[in-house]
């Protein structure tokens, strides 16, 4: 991490090899279990920053509440929760 002050209510995360580390505020407006075959990166889209929850070291206060992109999930993966599934982004 850099010498910057820590954010209040912040979460830390990073990649497995440790080359990328980040801190993000724990104020996510939406959280979904994305099953997209091409997901896996942090993407900046205007004012929104999409963070793969699997890259977080800390537990977020807003837990995923919907599976999205289930139409392109891995053939071997079975979704076992009772949440409403969305074939696209919701």
Strand order of the largest sheet: 1-2
The largest pleated sheet is described as: 2 strands, antiparallel
Low-confidence stretches: none
Structural class: mainly beta
Structure annotation, total helices: 0
How much of the polypeptide forms β-strand, as a percent range? 15-25%
Shape: globular
Helicity, in percent? under 10%
Rg is: 14 Å
What would the average pLDDT be, to the nearest integer?
76
The quaternary structure here is single chain
N-to-C order of helices and strands: EEEEEE
Number of strands: 6
Distance between the termini: 34 Å
Key terms:
single chain, 90 residues, mainly beta, two-stranded antiparallel sheet, two-stranded parallel sheet, 6 strands
């Amino acid at each position: 991490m850099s010498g910057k002050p820590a954010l209040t209510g912040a979460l830390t995360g990073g990649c497995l090899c440790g080359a990328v580390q980040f801190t993000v505020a724990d104020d996510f407006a939406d959280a979904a279990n994305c099953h997209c075959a091409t997901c896996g990166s942090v993407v900046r889209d205007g004012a929104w920053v999409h963070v793969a929850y699997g890259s977080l070291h800390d537990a977020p206060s807003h837990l995923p509440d919907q599976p999205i992109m289930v139409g392109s999930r891995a053939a071997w993966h079975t979704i076992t929760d009772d949440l409403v599934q969305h074939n696209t982004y919701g």
